[in-house]
TrEMBL record:
Protein name per UniProt: Tyr recombinase domain-containing protein
Sequence ranges assigned to domain Tyr recombinase in this UniProt record: 158-215
Record keywords, A-Z: DNA integration, DNA recombination, DNA-binding
Source organism: Lactococcus fujiensis JCM 16395
GO process terms (BP): DNA integration; DNA recombination
Length: 215
């Protein structure tokens, strides 16, 4: 019927056939009415949906459903990064999706830390795990994203060591200013050190940016 709305609830996949299980209802007179039915139906059937798909392993889900979808939604370079990160998620490969609890994810963090994996890399791995479990939740394979519940690690910012004036003086004296190339490098490093500009900011400078009157 024209002017009506419909809603579809995904209940996951059949373990035997691999086909997506959905429940659909049509004939709603408004989008709000359709949304209410969707929310109620999803909440009411989520438990049975998760139980029905509880035997699916993380690796099976990733290979059969997530990565094919991820490939269509990302650029090739982003996809390749995802493939590389997936290798570090092997901790979950043989686990059932339904068994990946917050405490399991925390144990995974601890294992990576024991391997001296950097906090920044663990952070990026956790983000990818969260994307995967988001998709699993969307398809009704898990009732919630436990990567969100567990929380990510804190990214540690590396300490930046600045040169002292003595260290800079020792360095800058190594340039032979009689040579054109070295004089140019001498000028660049001198300018960067005493202005605090970044390389990109220096490259963007034009003569208009320099006030020769206020030296």
């Amino acid at each position: 019927m024209r002017g009506t709305y419909y809603a579809v609830v995904s209940l996951g996949f059949d373990d035997i056939t691999g086909k997506r299980i959905q429940k659909k209802k049509t004939g709603f007179t408004s989008q709000v009415e359709a949304q209410k039915w969707y929310d109620f139906t999803k909440a009411d059937l989520s438990k049975s949906s998760v139980q029905m798909n509880s035997t699916m392993s993380f690796k099976t889900f990733v290979d059969k459903y997530f990565m094919p979808d991820y490939k269509t939604r990302t650029k090739s370079q982003t996809y390749d990064v995802g493939v590389a990160r997936l290798k570090r998620l092997d901790y979950f490969f043989d686990r059932k999706l339904s068994s990946i609890s917050p405490i399991v994810i925390q144990d995974w963090h601890n294992c990576l830390l024991e391997e001296n994996v950097s906090m920044s890399y663990i952070y990026s791995l956790h983000q990818f795990l969260q994307i995967i479990l988001n998709f699993a939740e969307k398809l009704g394979l898990v009732s919630r994203n436990n990567a969100k519940v567990a929380g990510n690690v804190k990214r540690s910012r590396g300490k930046v060591d600045f040169w002292t004036i003595e260290e800079f003086t020792t360095f800058i004296q190594t340039f032979n200013k009689k040579r054109v190339n070295e004089k140019l490098m001498f000028t660049v490093y001198w300018f960067l050190f005493f202005t605090g500009l970044r390389i990109g900011e220096l490259q963007a400078l034009t003569w208009k940016d320099i006030d020769f009157e206020k030296k």
